[in-house]
C-alpha cells in the first residue's frame, strides 16, 4: 500500500525526503507574466519584477486536475492545503478526492484544511511523515492529524499588506495602518483560518519580541517551531536565537518562502508555525 503526502505550494516545500511527496503549484499572475510556484522559479526575480510593476497582480489556486495528477499512483494520500477561508485550493482538492476515490476503488484521500499556511503546514506534514514511517493505519493518522491541529499555531510579521489588501484577503483599513513606514503588523491565523491582526509594532526588534511573547501566551514550551521568511534571514535567525535562549531544547528550522507566501508576505515578511503543549 503506497502512502503519499501532497501539499499545495503555500507550504514552501518542494522536496520532502523520506516519504512519497508531490507539491501542487499556486500561481502568481500579472498582466504580462505568470509565475508558477515550483522549484524552477527565481523568487528574487519575481519579487523584484512585482515591485517595479505597479499594475494588477493576483494569484490562483491549483485546479482539480493539478491535484489529481499529484495523487496518481498512490493508495493512501494526505493532501494538505492552505486555509479554505482564503483560497479555493481546499475545494479543488476535495473535488479531486471524490474523483480519485471513484476511479481508484480502495484508494483513500484525506484532505487537510490547514486553516493556515506555510510553516504550520510543514509541522503537520512532518508529523504525518513520522506516522506513516511508524506504520500507523490511515484512519489512525487521520485522527492524529485532527488532534495535532489543535496544538499548532501560526504567527507572522508583515511590513506591507498591499498584496493581501489588493486581492481582498485583508481589510484595506488594516492594510493602511501596516503600510506606514517602519510599522510591522504582527498577526495570527485565526481559529477559522483568516488573517487576524494583533499588534502594530515599531521596528523589527519590537515585532520579533512581540511574536515571541505571543508564542508563549499561546502555550509554546520549547517544542517545534518552523520559520519561513521572505528575504529576511536576519529576522529569522534573531527569532530563533530568542526562542533558544528561553527554551534551549526547542527544535527550530528556518526556510525561505517560495512564490505564494513571498507574494503575500512581501519582502521582509516572516511566518512562524509552532506547537503548544
Ligand atoms: O487561491 C489563491 O489564489 C491563494 C490565496 C492566498 C491568500 C493568503 C496567503 C497568505 C500568505 C501571508 C501571511 C499569513 C496569513 C495567514 C492567514 C491564515 C502569507
Mean pLDDT: 96
Distinct small molecules bound, one entry per kind: heptadecanoic acid
What is the overall silhouette?
Answer: globular
> Which consecutive residue ranges, at least 5 long each, have pLDDT under 50?
none
Number of helices: 10
For the largest beta sheet, what order do the strands appear in spatially? 10-9-8-13-11-12
Derived structural class: alpha/beta
Give the helices and strands as they follow along the chain.
Answer: EEEEHEHEHEHHEHHEEHEHEHE
Question: What gyration radius follows from the Cα positions, in whole Å?
Answer: 18 Å
Largest sheet: 6 strands, mixed
Describe this structure in words.
This protein is an alpha/beta fold and 277 residues long. 39% of the residues lie in helices and 26% in strands. It contains 10 helices and 13 strands. The chain has helices at residues 43-52, 64-71, 89-103, 118-133, 138-149, 162-166, 172-178, 204-217, 233-246, 259-265; strands at residues 3-8, 21-24, 27-30, 34-36, 57-60, 76-81, 108-113, 152-158, 183-189, 195-202, 224-229, 251-256, 270-275. The strands form 3 sheets. It has a 6-stranded mixed β-sheet with strand order 10-9-8-13-11-12, sandwiched between helices. A 4-stranded parallel β-sheet has the order 2-1-6-7, sandwiched between helices. Strand 11, helix 9 (233-246) and strand 12 form a beta-alpha-beta unit. Helix 4 packs antiparallel against helix 5 (138-149). The mean pLDDT is 96.
Amino acid at each position: 500500500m503506497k502512502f503519499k503526502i501532497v501539499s499545495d505550494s503555500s507550504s514552501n516545500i518542494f522536496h520532502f525526503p523520506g516519504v512519497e511527496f508531490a507539491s501542487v503549484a499556486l500561481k502568481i499572475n500579472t498582466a504580462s507574466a505568470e509565475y508558477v510556484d515550483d522549484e524552477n522559479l527565481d523568487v528574487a526575480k519575481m519579487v523584484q519584477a512585482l515591485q517595479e510593476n505597479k499594475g494588477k497582480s493576483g494569484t490562483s489556486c491549483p485546479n482539480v486536475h493539478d491535484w489529481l495528477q499529484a495523487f496518481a499512483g498512490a493508495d493512501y494520500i494526505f493532501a494538505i492545503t492552505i486555509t479554505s477561508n482564503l483560497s479555493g485550493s481546499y475545494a479543488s482538492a476535495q473535488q479531486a478526492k471524490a474523483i480519485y476515490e471513484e476511479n481508484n476503488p480502495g484508494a483513500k484521500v484525506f484532505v487537510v484544511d490547514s486553516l493556515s499556511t506555510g510553516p504550520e503546514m510543514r509541522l503537520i506534514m512532518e508529523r504525518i511523515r513520522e506516522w506513516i514511517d511508524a506504520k500507523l493505519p490511515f484512519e489512525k493518522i487521520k485522527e492524529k492529524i485532527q488532534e495535532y491541529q489543535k496544538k499548532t499555531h501560526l504567527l507572522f510579521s508583515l511590513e506591507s499588506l498591499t498584496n493581501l489588501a489588493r486581492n481582498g484577503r485583508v481589510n484595506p483599513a488594516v492594510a493602511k495602518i501596516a503600510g506606514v513606514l517602519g510599522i510591522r503588523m504582527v498577526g495570527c491565523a485565526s481559529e477559522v483560518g483568516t488573517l487576524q491582526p494583533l499588534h502594530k509594532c515599531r521596528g523589527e526588534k519590537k515585532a520579533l519580541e512581540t511574536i515571541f511573547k505571543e508564542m508563549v501566551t499561546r502555550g509554546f514550551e520549547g517544542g517545534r517551531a518552523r520559520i519561513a521568511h521572505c528575504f529576511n534571514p536576519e529576522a529569522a535567525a534573531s527569532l530563533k536565537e530568542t526562542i533558544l535562549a528561553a527554551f534551549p531544547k526547542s527544535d527550530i528550522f528556518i526556510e525561505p518562502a517560495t512564490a505564494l507566501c513571498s507574494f503575500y508576505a512581501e519582502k521582509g515578511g516572516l511566518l512562524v508555525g509552532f506547537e503548544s503543549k
